[in-house]
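May I ask for a single protein's sequence together with how it folds?
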Amino acid sequence: MACDSCYAESDMVITKRTKIVRLASGALLGSAGDSDSRHVDVLFTHVKTPRGLPTRKQLLDCQIDYHGLLVLPKGRVYFVAICQPEKDSPHGHWTGGIDEISEGYHSIGSGSPHALTAMDFGKSAKDAVAVACRRDLNSRPPIHVVPLKKPPVVQPKVKPKVKRKTKR
């Protein structure tokens, strides 16, 4: 999974940081929208399989404008959306849900059309984000890449202490 670093609102940069978190379950959650998505992150912290996904009600109770991509540890990809009511909406209810992405890849955010087209033509996630950064005003480097599988931690080998003979 890859992302740019720009959080923007009203065509103004708010902050620059990664938009991808590795959850306790090993899943990856990438977000676009509100820069403070902790309310949503908590719902997915321990999700390892589709059975563990939150309900639509739990999702909508967050009441935060949010778009995200969830990649479960075995590689299944889900689009997560929470949308605030339209100003002229007669019912005024939050909408959204969780949908599995059948293609195995997807993109979200303002640079999404550029990134998705790049991936359709065989570009990697990192290269697709680079294309979005080049074409979209609200997508900016640096690009962050987080592999689905956590790289193994290599423990340094400890050399046994050799006793030195002392001269007398």
